[in-house]
Specification:
By secondary structure, the chain is an alpha+beta fold. The chain has four domains: 42-149 and 497-503, no CATH class; 156-164 and 268-339 and 427-474, Ribonuclease H-like superfamily/Ribonuclease H (Nucleotidyltransferase, domain 5, 2-Layer Sandwich); 174-247; 349-422, no CATH class. It has helices spanning 42-45, 51-59, 65-68, 81-93, 99-105, 110-115, 123-132, 134-150, 177-201, 208-241, 294-305, 321-329, 389-393, 398-401, 417-427, 430-440, 443-453, 464-488, 493-497; strands at residues 159-167, 174-175, 246-247, 255-258, 261-273, 279-285, 312-314, 334-336, 353-355, 360-362, 368-375, 382-386, 410-413. The strands form three sheets. Strands 1, 4, 5, 6, 7 and 8 form a six-stranded mixed β-sheet that branches. Strand 9 (353-355) and strand 10 form a beta hairpin. Helix 2 crosses helix 4 (81-93), helix 8 packs parallel to helix 18 (464-488) and helix 9 runs antiparallel to helix 10. The N and C termini lie far apart (75 Å). The relative contact order is 0.13.
């Protein structure tokens, strides 16, 4: 007789629900090892309207001949490049970025199993493919832009530009030259101590513990020597680049101001079409600001689309002389946001009049601000004008001009001040205000999707070149999500199949 684990009341509980019409309340579950006459296929397990089917069809239209040309043949047959590319792009669109995680979901998630034809996948396949075909993936991104143009999604009526800092695959800690030198010195001392210990072990008793320690010493010494070599290489790179600090694990990533504080990272630059939300240019730099990036972005937009946008909108990080000159030289209708001239109700630059003959400014209170020299502040070669402390101290309009703790008024005039003033006037127009408002609602959400949905808050690959591949894959995924959404809303895939070969 089986032992009784719990006391079972002879009578049913008073508050137990009563069956209705004498029917059964719960289903009987079939046994997991129950045989069926016809097993379900993978195709039956994926709904006809599932987005993965559209991903498969859209990605199947891309030209992968550049990938295929890299396979000379011979040996064991390789997986078709289109097959691997589909898995990588769909995974990125679903926020699966790790090669190991992708290999895992190919055996657990029905959609990935369907896309992988039920084959067991090795993570090294995805890892190697991603790093070996960086240039080809960049061309795939250009093809998604061509698809968006052919579908009529990308209109180029408005293009918004922005940059965002993304953490590198590196330790958060970055070292100065002095810290690197001190670390190398400490490692040298540890290496000398281990060498002395190894010599002493030769004369020690041959106990099990001593033998274990003796076997481990060479490995410890090799680890120290490897790190010492890496730190010395980091120090050489630091001196070559002229940075203040450098990461031990990624020499190419400078310190960036991210939402998670200062840490080694890169500057992702994208341009987004206002009507479709599709990315029409993407690139990765090691620049710590956006000052000199606009010219390359504009050239990339025209190269990828073949069109010049009707309106280009960028934030204040692009307000350098080079950026404004690029807009003018390319005859772009551009709007670059500017910081407000007046802050907290105090006088802005426009309230000061300039005397060209004497090269000085006159404040609203009638005091002079003579020229004091050149200084590299926000821009190189800024002209500095400064009042005397005495006149500011006794000025009756001091509260309208200076913060409480300031002792004098200083004006910093950028070398391209006239261009900045012209841009400020342009921004005050109705079209300028509309362009800036649309920029905020276009490119900012795209970065939000990249970071929050795709998970691109930190790169998984080391080095700028490999990190750029991740950004390109993320941009491809963004564009494919937009195309899939368009198809689900009634867009004709047949229309895309008739896209001219030149566009692809």
């Amino acid at each position: 007789m089986d032992p009784v684990l719990f006391d079972v009341p002879a009578e049913p509980l008073a508050n137990a629900p009563k069956p209705v019409c004498g029917g059964r309340r719960f289903r009987d579950l079939p046994a997991r090892d129950q045989l069926v006459l016809r097993p379900r296929s993978l195709d039956e397990m994926v709904a006809p309207e599932d987005p993965v089917r559209i991903f498969d069809e859209l990605l199947g239209q891309l030209d992968v001949s550049a990938f295929e040309a890299r396979f000379p043949g011979g040996g064991a047959p390789a997986y078709p490049p289109a097959f691997v590319l589909k898995l990588l792009v769909f995974a990125m669109a679903e926020g699966v970025r790790s090669a190991r995680q992708l290999a895992l979901v190919c055996s657990r998630d029905v959609r990935f199993m369907w896309l992988a034809h039920g084959l067991p996948m090795d993570h090294e396949l995805f890892s190697d493919f991603r790093t070996d075909f960086g240039d080809e993936i960049e061309r795939v991104f250009a093809q998604t832009v061509a698809l968006g143009l052919h579908a009529g999604l990308i209109t180029m009526r408005h293009v918004s530009v922005d940059g965002s800092k993304i953490a590198a695959h590196a330790n958060r800690k970055a070292y100065s030259e002095a810290e690197l030198t001190e670390l190398v010195k400490q490692l040298q001392e540890r290496a000398a101590k281990l060498l002395a210990e190894m010599a002493a072990q030769d004369e020690a008793d041959d106990t099990a513990e001593a033998a274990e320690r003796k076997a481990r010493l060479p490995k410890d010494l090799a680890d120290i020597e490897r790190r010492q070599e890496r730190l010395q290489q980091a120090r050489d790179e630091l001196l070559k680049k002229g940075w203040g600090r450098i990461s031990e694990t990624d020499f190419e990533a400078p310190l960036q101001k991210t939402q998670d504080g200062k840490r080694p990272g890169y500057n992702a630059q994208i341009a987004v079409d206002g009507d479709s939300g599709m990315v029409v240019h993407q690139g990765l730099t090691d620049a710590q600001n956006d000052t000199h990036e606009l010219a390359a972005i504009l050239a990339g937009v025209v190269e990828n689309t073949g069109f010049k946008p009707d309106v280009v909108a960028a934030d204040s990080g692009y307000q350098s002389a080079a950026s404004l000159q690029a807009l003018e030289a390319g005859n772009f209708n551009g709007y670059v946001n500017q910081p407000q001239a007046a802050k907290d109700g105090r006088f802005g630059h426009e309230a000061f009049s300039y005397d060209g003959e004497r090269d000085l400014y006159v404040c609203p209170g009638g005091h002079e601000l003579p020229y004091k020299g050149l200084k590299d502040l926000r821009y190189e070669g800024c002209r500095v004008y400064r009042s005397s402390r005495l006149c500011c101290r006794d000025c009756p309009r001091r509260a309208e001009c200076l913060p409480e703790k300031a002792k004098f008024k200083q004006l910093v005039v950028a070398p391209h001040a006239e261009q900045l003033q012209a841009m400020r006037r342009k921004l005050k127009t109705e079209e300028g205000q509309a362009a800036l408002k649309r920029r905020f609602a276009t490119v900012e959400p795209t970065f939000g999707v990249m970071k929050s949905v795709l998970g691109l808050r930190q790169f998984l690959l080391v080095g700028q070149e490999k990190a750029a591949i991740e950004l390109a894959l993320a941009s491809v995924a963004i564009n494919m999500r937009k195309l899939v959404s368009w198809a689900l809303k009634g867009g004709s895939l047949g229309q895309l199949q008739q896209a001219p070969a030149a566009a692809m």
